[in-house]
Amino acid sequence: MRKKKNQFIRGLELTAYAAEGKSLGRTEGKVVFVERAVPGDVVDVMLTRNKADWAEGIPVEFISYSPDRVEPFCDHFGICGGCQWQMLPYEKQLAYKQQQVYDQLTRIGGVAVEHLLPIVGCTQTTGYRNKLEFTFCNRRYLSREELGNPDISAEGSFAGFHAKGVFDKVVHLGHCHLMQEPANLIRDTLRNKAIELGLPFYDFKHHHGFMRGVQYRLCSTGDLMVNLIVGYEKAEARKALLDHLLQTVPAITTLYYTINTKQNDSMFGLEPQLYFGAPHATEMLEDFKFLISPKSFFQTNTQQAEALYRITRDFAELDGSQVLYDLYCGTGSIGIFCSKGASRVIGVELVQEAIDDAKANAALNQLQHTAFYAGDVIDICNDDFFASHGRPDVIITDPPRAGMHEKLVRKILDMAAPTVVYVSCNPATQARDLRLLAEKYEVTKAQPVDMFPHTHHIENVVQLKLKNA
User: Fold this and answer.
1) Is residue 31 within 8 Å of 24, Cβ to Cβ?
2) Which of 1, 14, 88, 139 has the smallest number of Cβ neighbours within 10 A?
3) pLDDT in tens, 184-231
4) pTM for the full model?
5) CA angle 299-301-303, nearest 5°?
6) 301 contact partners, CB below 8 Å, separation of at least 6
7) Phi, psi angle pair for 360, to nearest 5°
8) Burial level of 41, CB count in 10 A (0-12/13-18/19+)?
9) Catalytic residue set
């Protein structure tokens, strides 16, 4: 079978932003979506998909650059893939994200967004993450320039992020700007000590090696939790590593290690072992405290999480009398954050461990009017449940990127709460769900929030009101 030749479009001018970090140009009646470029660039494009009236591709040569471009601040830009929009001024990033929300709500959701509010940007655009995970690997990703250099080897002991689309190599990092120090110090301390001890770094192709990864979380309270992931137990070497880390980085308040013998990096089914300090880190949102364990989910931008949750709380329009249902409640952070304005908070979440954390967080904040339940909303929220807990006056739903299952949308329509607040990390699936909710609800407000500067990710909060309520 003959291999299909690569197809190219030469000198394509990119004239607009599409979505999800892609720009678009037009040629001979065809729309071409291009990654890794911005409106105003003129590029030679290699097509990765080619249909009758549209195509997708990647730039192979820049003929000229957009006048909007700025110099990226990270040495790893264009290779790492973690901060794809560093070449755009932040105000331009916000404008394109605002446009993306508008386009998706109107085109996919059929929403007449008369009250789409201006996007809320971050005041801190670097060092904003409170959690990072670096991977240790025995092979590194080489750029096109490095591939031809005989002095640079892909084999060795490296620490960084997985290269995009490449499972068995990492982009070896110097300084990462995503998190404040001692983030880079922790990564480099472990790497250098492991090399000194002769410990093998993980081989993701053949699944062997000791050093697999490190996770850490730096809270606004100053708590610093670290979790070293290794491929097997080697007690003496592990102890030497951890003791050296504690000596080098005395700011660590909680230190775990996790032995992962699986062929994937998921923490599911693994039990982190406490080596030093308190079993939890403590984070604060306004005056609410939250306990965080190594496997807990928590928003990774603390400062902007407060902004997101304040908007959610404002959209809920709580006056102290309402029963609030928090769907996809996770560890209870949104429901707890909104709890002062509700007569009762009911949280529902599929993951039992998250519900356990939610109950602990409610107790930590001395909340007597909250209740959290593990299971599917569709099964839990029946007439008997409503008889015990009351029907919802306000529903907050914060689903994963895939959005809500259609059965859950139907359940929300059946519950017919006067107000629904839909928090989304994917405006496209949110818009799809809003079209279904339009059977009984109208969108009255929408507020984009940027949680992740220099990336194409965007959060959006929508307020819905029951028609004829």
Assistant:
1) yes
2) 1
3) 999 999 999 999 999 999 999 999 999 999 999 999 999 999 999 999
4) 0.92
5) 115
6) 122, 128, 129, 130, 451, 452
7) -65, -40
8) buried
9) 425
